[in-house]
From TrEMBL:
Lineage, top ranks: Bacteria, Pseudomonadati, Pseudomonadota, Gammaproteobacteria, Alteromonadales
Pfam families: TctC (PF03401)
UniProt cross-references to InterPro entries, sorted A to Z: BUG (IPR005064), Bug_dom1 (IPR042100)
Family membership noted in the UniProt record: Belongs to the UPF0065 (bug) family.
Coiled coil stretches, renumbered: none
Name of the featured protein: Tripartite-type tricarboxylate transporter, receptor component TctC
Keyword line: Receptor
């Protein structure tokens, strides 16, 4: 045995009472860290949630998400950050959400019907409605056909006659891929008016479309009624896409409005706004998905939030995951029947 090895052994023998406790402390320390990390991962959520809105700032879906976010954060115990990913009829936002980790920290806020539907039916999307798990459909709306308040058009029949006889002179605003977009196309189709006769301007957000008609930039708009309270004084309704008249807006049902033209227009479900995650997340973490849904239901029971939503004319309905998924499937099939018009 050489001198160096002997010296080392003597040092260990002399200090073993100090070395063993120190080693034990190190083991306990690192075990505690590992346990804390594992425990932290089991607690959900343990960091901020991102709510991705498929439209620009100021539209109905954006207002719904921002109104809910503060109260939802209180239920979750974590901040809820709202970000906007507008464009391509919510295609950009949908892809953004699907490309995020499937861990529950990203929630999609959108007008799932008809926007998500149309991104699929138009053939641009690589996903299907089954790739999303719907937490709740909160806001159901009917589409309003309204003209600028100083417009010369008094009836829908008069407006359509102008489009027929004076091509390209009438301008309309719709949100790209919306129910209003499809209704505009349907009106032209059932009345036998060439699609190119109408100067149809498509926007990526309801806020911009409403600003266009309120400012007289376009002659009329077809858009969700409940989200149009902010421009009520600047527009005059001609019809509501419903089976019955709307007394609040003073708008007649679409069937009555087109009756003088001897045509029928199908009553399509308007915008259905709500929240979803990816299906992959729900399948991977079903308990987390249930927690997000339960927290959202409790949030919508908050009286302060409900008062806020009422003042803003935003619905605060709790539909739940199962019913929301069922509605998504039914409405997808309805819009699928007329989707070809959006490609014209």
């Amino acid at each position: 045995m050489n001198r160096l090895m002997l010296t080392t052994l003597l040092a260990i023998k002399h200090n073993y009472k100090k070395i063993i406790p120190l080693t034990l402390i190190h083991c306990l320390f690192f075990s505690h860290i590992a346990f804390a990390q594992e425990e932290s991962e089991d607690v959900f959520p343990n960091r901020p949630i991102t709510m991705v809105v498929g439209f620009g700032v100021g539209g109905g879906t954006d207002q719904m998400a921002r109104s809910l976010s503060k109260y939802y954060a209180e239920e979750l115990g974590q901040p809820v950050q709202v970000v906007n990913k507008k464009g391509a009829g919510t295609l950009i936002a949908a892809n953004y959400v699907l490309n995020k980790p499937d861990d529950g920290y990203t929630i999609f806020a959108s007008g799932f019907n008809p926007y998500l539907t149309n991104t699929i039916l138009e053939g641009n999307a690589d996903y299907g409605i089954e790739d999303f798990a719907y937490l709740n459909f909160q806001w159901f709306d009917e589409d309003l056909i309204a003209v600028f308040k100083e417009s010369k058009y008094q009836t829908l029949q008069q407006l359509m006659a102008e489009i027929r006889t004076k091509p390209k002179t009438v301008r309309a605003a719709v949100v790209r891929g919306s129910g209003g977009h499809l209704i505009a196309k349907l009106l032209l189709d059932v009345t036998g008016i060439p699609q190119e006769n109408l100067n149809l301007v498509t926007y990526n957000s309801g806020g911009k479309a409403r600003a266009a008609v309120a400012g007289g930039v376009v002659d009329f708009i077809i858009i969700s009624a409940k989200g149009s309270e902010s421009i009520r004084e600047y527009i005059r309704p001609l019809a509501i896409i419903s089976d019955s008249d709307n007394e609040d807006w003073g708008a007649m049902a679409i069937g009555k409005a087109v009756a003088p033209m001897n045509v029928d227009v199908p009553v399509l479900q308007g915008t259905i706004r709500g929240f979803a995650t990816t299906t992959a997340f729900k399948e991977k973490y079903p308990e987390r998905f249930a927690y997000l849904a339960d927290a959202m239901e409790r949030t919508l029971q908050n009286k302060e939030l409900q008062a806020l939503l009422k003042r803003a004319s935003i619905s605060g309905r709790w539909t739940g995951p199962e019913k929301s998924e069922e509605l998504m499937k039914v409405n997808f099939e309805v819009f699928k029947k007329y989707a070809y018009l959006l490609k014209m």
